[in-house]
Amino acid sequence: MSSLNSELTPLRLVWALLALTGLIVALWRGEAFWQGVGGSDLVAQATLALWCLIETMLRRNWAALLTLPALAFGLGCALPLYLFIRSRRIT
Question: What are the protein's UniProt keywords (predicted)?
Fold first, then answer.
């Protein structure tokens, strides 16, 4: 877990704040857990899920799997979270 906290660059801080903002907005508007998801949102969520799975298999970036449960709160939460995770150095 310390590797997530190390190297908190300004860009990674922006990704983290956007992920948190996406989560808060989804909860505030009652849009969590796939309520009101349209067709294009489903395609975008499926694309991000596939990308995370491939990322995990190819780069062994196991933290990218944290994005999958975040998809329940929508792309506004999951995509910035994925970018936050993806932008860290993999050891």
Answer: Membrane, Transmembrane, Transmembrane helix
Q: Count Cα neighbours of 77 within 13 Å in the Cβ-side half-sphere.
A: 21
Q: Structurally, how many domains does the chain consist of?
A: 1
47, 41 contact by CB (below 8 A): no
The upper half-sphere exposure of residue 57, i.e. CA atoms within 13 Å in the direction of its Cβ, equals 6
What range does the domain containing 70 cover?
Answer: 2-86
Structural domain includes residue 91: no
Looking at the domain assignment, is residue 80 inside a domain?
Answer: yes
pTM over the 0.70 mark: yes
Helix 39-59, helix 75-86: angle, nearest 10:
20
**CA dist., res. 44 & res. 60, Å (int):** 23
Is 20 a member of any domain? yes
Question: Which tokens go with 5?
Answer: 């906290």
